[in-house]
Amino acid sequence: MSDTEFPKTGLLRLSSILAPAGPIPVSKSTWWQGVKDGRFPKPLKLGPSTTVWRAEDIHALIRSGV
């Protein structure tokens, strides 16, 4: 997904963030460990089985060089 296709605002599910659909080339387990360690943004829980991230936080992560 190119930068022009990746949303600038809104809420994103993990499948939109991680490769191959998203811009972050890490596995789910690496992502969740990074969230736990504070390397990756904290998610928002919308419900018992719905977790999302702010698009702005993901753009900030990309700009930081991850």
Layout: helices, strands, pairs:
Elements: E1 11-12, H1 14-17, H2 28-37, E2 44-47, E3 50-54, H3 55-63
Antiparallel strand pairs: 1-3, 2-3
Biggest beta sheet attributes:
3 strands, antiparallel
Distance between the termini: 16 Å
Strand % is: 15-25%
Number of strands: 3
H-E string: EHHEEH
Radius of gyration: 11 Å
Structural class determined from secondary elements: alpha+beta
How many helices? The count is: 3
Helical content, roughly? 25-40%
Global morphology = globular
Spatial strand arrangement across the major sheet:
1-3-2
Number of domains: 1
Query: Low-confidence parts, pLDDT < 50 over ≥5 residues?
Result: none
Q: Output mean pLDDT.
A: 93
Q: What do these coordinates show?
A:
There is one protein chain. The chain has helices at 14-17, 28-37, 55-63; strands at residues 11-12, 44-47, 50-54. It has 66 residues and is an alpha+beta fold. The protein has one domain (11-63). The chain has a three-stranded antiparallel sheet with strand order 1-3-2. A hairpin with a 2-residue loop joins strand 2 (44-47) and strand 3 (50-54). It starts with 10 loop residues before the first strand and ends with a helix. 8% of the residues are buried. The model has no long low-confidence stretch (mean pLDDT 93).
Question: What descriptors fit this protein?
Answer:
66 residues; alpha+beta; 3 helices
